Fold this protein.
Amino acid sequence: MPKKNEGLSRPGREAEKPVLQEIRLAESHCKLGGLKGSALPSRATQTIGLEIGPRHDGGGVLAVASFRLLFTYAGAVDGDAPLLLAASFRLQYVLPRPVSRKRLEDVVRRVALPDVWPYWRELAQSLTVRMGLPAFPLPLMRPARLEMVDGGNNSRERPRP
């Protein structure tokens, strides 16, 4: 008798899952200024970028995930942001079995943001606390809620509202 969830797995799916070899914080910066007394900014806008390309040693794929979180007061323009958090993470992937470069990049495109999201959440929360502000917890990311904004090698993905 087959096990209850046996029919849910797809053959070959596990073999296509990329192995995350390394994740590093490549860059981070923040800006704090122009706070209006004790009132904190009431709006936050987040931009997420994902660039995927071959690793320099030719042994897999390098993904660079970039995040920018901009806090503003209602009615203010983005240039007047009193608080900015930004970071870039480098992720290196390989597949357990050889596949085409295009296939590897397609698979990495699906897994890179969910892999790096917990690190971005922790960094954003930690930076706001270190600046003496209340912690700003980002929501959990669910891979099914991602949508493509721009196709091609410089593909950008963002969470849908």
Q: What stands out?
A: The CA atoms of residues 46 and 69 lie 4 Å apart. Strands lie at 19-32, 43-54, 61-72, 83-94, 146-150, 156-159.
